[in-house]
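User: quick one, sequence for these tokens?
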């Protein structure tokens, strides 16, 4: 399984019109992680697919395109009826990625990136 340790910054974190929304989104991540884990434990593919569908859109909308793409790939696999045990590694990797999401602006981004 891949390890993710570097922060994943929102492309909108430095935008004053969106920064508060990004903070709210990041603050809700623990709830999403708990829902994913519960759904996996219960083999609840309906809730799992819906959660990844929501994350696909929300991550993209809040400036986390890498997370959006990863959530979309998992959603597609769930929709294709892949069994949860086969998806577990991908889901665990996504969880580790999501834990790295931060509402802090990227200190390495240039002013023209904002």
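Assistant:
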């Amino acid at each position: 399984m891949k390890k993710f340790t570097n922060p994943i910054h929102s492309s909108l974190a430095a935008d004053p019109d969106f920064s508060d929304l990004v903070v709210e989104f990041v603050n809700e991540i623990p709830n999403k992680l708990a829902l994913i884990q519960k759904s996996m434990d219960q083999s609840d593919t309906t809730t799992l697919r819906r959660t990844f569908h929501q994350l696909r859109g929300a991550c993209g909308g809040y400036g986390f395109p890498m997370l959006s793409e990863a959530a979309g790939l998992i959603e597609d696999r769930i929709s294709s009826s892949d069994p949860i045990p086969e998806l577990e590694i991908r889901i665990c990797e996504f969880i580790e990625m999501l834990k790295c999401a931060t509402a802090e602006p990227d200190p390495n981004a240039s002013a023209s990136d904002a």
